Amino acid sequence: MTWTPFASVAETLRALESGAVSSEEVTRAYLERIANLEGRVHAFLSVYPDEALAAARAADARRMAARRHPDETLPPLLGLPIAVKDVLAVRGMTLTCGSRILEGFVPPYTATAVQRLLDAGVIIVGKTNTDEFAMGSSTENSAYGPTHNPWDLSRVPGGSSGGSAAAVAARMVPVALGTDTGGSVRQPASYTGVSGLKPTYGRVSRYGLVAYGSSLDTVGVLAPAVADLVPFFTLMAGHDPRDATSMDLPVPAVDLTDAVEAVQGLRVGLPKEYFLAEGMQPEVVQAVQAAVRHLETLGAQVVEVSLPHTEYALPVYYIIAPSEASANLARYDGIRYGPRVGAARMWDVFYRTRGRLFGPEVKRRIMLGTYALSAGYYDAYYAQAQKVRTLLKRDFERAFEQVDLLAAPVAPSTAFKLGEKTEDPLAMYLEDVFTLPANLAGVPGLAFPVGFDEQGLPIGMQLMGPHFREDLLFRVAHAYQQTTDWHTRVPPVAR
Amino acid sequence: MLSREEVIHIAQLARLELTPEEIERYREQLSAVLDYFAKLAEVDTTGIPPTASVLPPRSVLRKDEPRPGLPREELLANAADTEDGQFKVPPVLE
After folding, report:
1. Which residues constitute the domain of residue A259?
2. CA-based Rg of chain A, rounded to a whole angstrom?
3. Interface predicted TM-score of the whole assembly (ipTM), two decimals
4. In a domain, A215, yes or no
5. Residue B60: its pLDDT value, please?
6. What is the CATH number of the domain that holds B21?
7. Under an 8 A CB cutoff, do B87 and A351 touch?
8. Which candidate, A49, A294, A381, A472, has a CA 20 to 30 Å from the CA of A390?
């Protein structure tokens, strides 16, 4: 067999196992792609070519040595290059969170989710761009400049995992890790025509993920095809004593064989509120409806359901997440890590370091959260938001009594122009209207491409399922991809 | 609409130094967002408990056993200023 550059994860692993290609050759091919496109896409905040090639040669040596010892089992992802969103700690690699306040910070430890993949043999080629502290929907809030959408360089890739999504879409890496607090894996996946998983809250350890909204944060993964995501999810998931919210539950193996047949008889719910939002792009509605009809032809039973509190998800999220952020980001004070803006007295160090090194959106959210938690406003904002969150969660519980999973658009429109929404925070927040509910309810969501609009921009659909049923989402989405080819399309810049 | 004084008060609580232009911009932007949030008041939440966790309740207690932490020099390596193995800060009081 031979290796086709930029093949799927499974094909690349098979080629590595057969000896048709070395990890060094694979890694070099991706590094060359990064060198060629990074100037236009800006998907990365740091790239480590020398370290990656050294790790690739070590992986090749290990594989060679194992040929002489046939009973030795090799790690499952040995020699496969990946990228990691720059909000996850990797020992020895800078961790900026897209912020000046962490410029030059090198963490002394590695996130559990990343460590499990390193143990499985992956090679980290670099850290990807993100909205500052994952706060944003376009990657324009990065202090280090925006990422450009590979499908149209004048447009945003979505956010906050826009660097990871663009890197995968442009085939600069086969797979990249992202995080999803309010849609930050699914929405950029949708804008760039790739597949992306937001797991159930508590499924993947958050240890080593820089905290934003701790009751909402999840570690996810992006790749062209759903099948590529599965081994990464399976390896990352599972209990970690270092994250008290990580659930001590078995992670079932995900069996994708006969996925198409398994769609027969599944009940797929269409939440009507997700098709009625103001200002929705008609092509998005049409593409999602066509994808659902496709599932119907595979044997699914499609029924309309209602999640009546959907319209409140946006205010609930933008109270709870900033409230949690205002506490989580209190630690950036110029004392223990990151640059310090000097002053004669300590209090002024705090004010100046935070005031000057946090970007506009981070300051906006810290202030929103501080306000919502402050004396006199707590009950009206934070306490009311947590009660409405209970109602949103119940909406999902009721829906999953009627159907096995839900199918809906990921975002109201396709990728917008750089600069189009930067002056209007509320317009930017409205991009998240369909992704926030899954985070607030803690349920898993899986986004994947289901078409393109007239301008050639990808359209995504998301499946949402009951807690801990990622396996179901994977099987149905894989069945869709087995019988369609949207996920195989590559943007012109990467052809 | 938030007053200028309210914005300054919030920024002080959050330890954020703001320029006069930022104060004015955040006054407008935060007011617009808070106006939008007002729609939450229309939801009847009588008798609805606040969400404490989206996960099933369970014990997360573990044995309190001492374990080694990260080496001191690694933890100090990222600090702007250190002395004698400790973080160094400017005077708190004069």
Report:
1. 9-309+392-494
2. 22
3. 0.96
4. yes
5. 80
6. 1.10.20.60
7. no
8. A472
In the residue annotation, A22 being an active-site residue is answered as no
Write out the two tokens for A184. 């930050």
Three-state DSSP state, A427: helix
Q: Give per-residue pLDDT as tens, B5-56.
A: 999 999 999 999 999 999 999 999 999 999 999 999 999 999 999 999 999 8
Q: Could you say which of B39, B49, B91 has the minimum Cβ distance to residue A390?
A: B49
- Is A397 within the bounds of a domain? yes
How high is the pLDDT of residue B73?
95
* Buried residues in A371-397 as b, exposed as e (16+ CB within 10 A): bbbbeeeeebbbbbbbbbbbbbbebbe
Q: What is the pLDDT of residues A296-352, one digit of tens each?
A: 999 999 999 999 999 999 999 999 999 999 999 999 999 999 999 999 999 999 999
Q: pLDDT tens across A125-152, in order?
A: 999 999 999 999 999 999 999 999 999 9
CA B47/CA A387 separation, integer angstroms: 9
Q: Please determine, for residue A279, whether its predicted confidence score (pLDDT) is greater than 90.
A: no
Q: Which two tokens mark A490?
A: 């590559």
CA dist B87 and A335 (Å) reads: 7
Yes or no: say if A134 and A365 are a contact pair by the CB < 8 Å rule: no
Annotated catalytic residue within A8, A22, A23, A85: A85
Q: Which domain holds residue B3?
A: 1-45
Number of structural domains found in chain A: 1
Q: Smallest CA–CA separation between B18 and chain A, in Å?
A: 6
Confirm whether A393 is a catalytic residue.
Answer: no
CA proximity to A185, closest of A148, A251, A131, A244 = A131
Residue A107 is part of a domain; what is its CATH number? 3.90.1300.10
pLDDT at A323: 98
Residue A328 resides in a domain: no
CA distance A154 to chain B (A): 26
In a domain, A362, yes or no: no
Instruction: Give the separation between CA A21 and CA A77, rounded to whole angstroms.
Output: 14
CA separation for the pair A49, A38 (Å, rounded): 13
C-alpha span between A43 and A222 (Å, rounded): 14
A194 three-class SS: coil
Calculate mean pLDDT across residues A10-39: 97
> Which position has the token pair 């005077």?
B91
Residue B77 lies in a domain: no
| Phi then psi dihedrals of residue A81, to 5 deg | -75, 140
Total H helices, total E strands in chain B? 3, 2
Q: Round to whole Å and give the CA distance between A277 and A275.
A: 6
Domain count, chain B: 1
> How distant is the Cα of B77 from the closest Cα of chain A, in angstroms?
8
Is A4's pLDDT higher than 80?
Answer: yes
- B70 vs A393: CB contact, 8 Å cut-off? no
Give me the long-range contacts of A107-112 (CB less than 8 A, separation at least 24).
A107/A208, A108/B70, A108/B71, A108/B74, A108/B75, A108/B77, A109/A208, A109/B70, A110/A208, A111/A205, A111/A207, A111/A208, A111/A209, A111/A219, A112/A205, A112/A207, A112/A208, A112/A240, A112/A242, A112/A243
* B15 located within any domain: yes
Assigned domain for B68 exists: no
Crossing angle of the two packed helices A23-41 and A49-67, in degrees rounded to 10: 160
Q: Is B62 inside any structural domain?
A: no
What's the confidence (pLDDT) of residue A463? 98
